[in-house]
Amino acid sequence: NYLTPSHDMLDDVESGIALEKAIANFQEMFNLEITGEMNEATEAAMEMPRCGVQDMHDDRVSITMRRINQLPYVLNKYKWHHNVITYRVVKYTNDLPKKFIDATIVKALNFWCDVTPLSFKRVDVPADIDIKFVVKDHGDSGPFDGPGHTLAHAYFPNDDNKPIRGDAHFDDDELWLAGGRKKVRHSYNLLQVMTHEFGHSLGLHHSKSSKSVMAPHYVPFNPRFKLFADDVLGIQALYGKRDGKTTTPRETTERTTRETTSERTTTPVESSTTEGGAFDKCRDGKLDAVTTGTDGHSYGFRGSYYFVFQESINSAVKTQSISSGWRGLPNDLDAALMWPRENNKKARVYFFKGSKYYRFEGRRMAAGYPRDISCGFPGIPNNIDGAFVSKSDHKTYFVKGNMYYEYERSRGLSRPPVRKEYTPFRHLQTDRLDAVFYSTQYKQTYFFSGKNYYRLNSDLSANSKYPRAIS
Ligand SMILES: [Ca+2]
Ligand SMILES: [Ca+2]
Ligand SMILES: [Ca+2]
Ligand SMILES: [Zn+2]
Ligand SMILES: [Zn+2]
C-alpha cells in the first residue's frame, strides 16, 4: 500500500525492532542523525507539510537502482509503456479559477515533458492521470487529514491495470495558491505540489536530495521553481531523454544567465538601419512570419532579417538582422504569435521553427528556451506555417497547409484540426499561408501568401479589394 502516510505506518508497527528500523529509515531519508529513536528533530520532520506517498518501501528494484547509481532519486518498479500520457481533471478546487488550474497542470506536466520523450494529452474520459481535489475520506485507502500535514498523494504507474494507477489527489482542505506570498496558514503553491505528484504518477519515489522536486516535504514558494538535476536524472533513468538532448536544467540556467548578462538590447527605433540590399530581399520574397510585438509594433521576419511595418502594412522599413534584434532567435522562422496580457499573465511573443518554439518577453528570450512544441503546445504539429489570435472569437489558430488548429491558451487544442472551409476564415481567397497575424497597430488580421497579402471584412466575408502585393 503506497498510500499509508509514514506516521500512520509507524503507529501500526507492532514490533519494536521494526519501529526502530522504520525510524532509522525515516531519519536517513531526511538526512537526520540516525538514532532509530524518536527525538525532537525527527518528530518535527514528521509534522512538516508533506506529500502523503510513503517514503519507506521495500521495493527491491528501486533500492538496487539507488545503490548502483549512488544518486538520491528513487525509481518505482513500474513505468508507463506508452509515450502519450493522458490526463483528465475530475474535480477542481474553488481556491483558484479553473483556467488557472488548467494552465498550472500543463505547466507542471511540461517540466517532465521537456526532459523525456513523453507528451501529455488532455481527455474527458478516464485517463492515465486522473486529477481531483478532495477532502478526508475520498474512496481510496488514503483519506486526507484536514488542513496541513498531508497535502496530496499520487499513485505510481503499476502493472495491475487498475484505473487508479497514475492518479493524483490533492487535499482540498488546504488553500491552494497561484503564488505563495499570502501568509495564510495551510496555504500551498499549486504548481510545486502538482509537479511533485506528477513525478509519482510517472514512476518516481521520493528523493533523498532535499533540493529535489521529489523531496517528500513541501518547499516554501519559489518563483523560479523547476526540476532539480536529480529529478531529471531520475525521470530519464525511467524514460530516456528527449531527442537525445543532454542538457540538464542547471546547464541551461548557466548558459542563459551568461547570454543575458552580455545582452545588449537593440530596438529598431534607436539603432541604425540597413536599407538597400537586405531590404530589397524582403520586397521580392515571401514572408516567414509576422507578429505584433509586446510593444504594439508590427514585425515581419524573412530569412535572417526582420523589419518593422510603418504607417501601413505595405510600407516596411528599418530592416535589421534577426541576430542583432532578437538574441537567441534562429533565422528562417516558421511562425510567430503574440499572446496579449491576460489576467496576471504578461504579454508574450512566441516564435516557431521546426519542432522548437522560443518565448520572448519584449526583446529578451526567456530562460530555458527553445523548448519542444510537443510539450508547450500539445497537439500542434511541427513545421507550422502561421499562428494568430483571431479578433472575431479570441481563439488562437495554428495553420499548417490547409489545416487549422483551434487552440486555447490554458487548455490546449480545443477540437481536432479542420480544413479551412470549416473555420470562420473559409472566405479567405488562398489555401496556402506563409504568415498571418492580428495587428493591434492596424486593428486587422492579415494573411500573407507568396507576394500577396489578404484581409477579410469584419464579418469575415471575402474582401474584394484583396489580395494586394507586398511592396
Ligand atoms: Ca489512472
Ligand atoms: Ca491535509
Ligand atoms: Ca510561415
Ligand atoms: Zn510525494
Ligand atoms: Zn486519494
Automatic annotation (TrEMBL):
Binds 2 Zn(2+) ions per subunit. Can bind about 5 Ca(2+) ions per subunit. Keywords: Calcium, Disulfide bond, Hydrolase, Metal-binding, Metalloprotease, Protease, Repeat, Signal, Zinc, Zymogen. Hemopexin repeats lie at residues 284-329, 330-380, 381-428, 430-471. Zn(2+) 1 binds at residues 138, 140, 153, 169. This is Matrix metalloproteinase. CDD domains: HX (cd00094), ZnMc_MMP (cd04278). The keyword Aminoacyl-tRNA synthetase does not apply. Residues 76-241 form the Peptidase metallopeptidase domain. Ca(2+) 5 binds at residues 336, 387, 436. Ca(2+) 1 binds at residues 95, 172, 174. The modification Phosphotyrosine is found at residue 369. It comes from Osedax japonicus. GO terms for cellular component: extracellular matrix; extracellular space. Belongs to the peptidase M10A family.
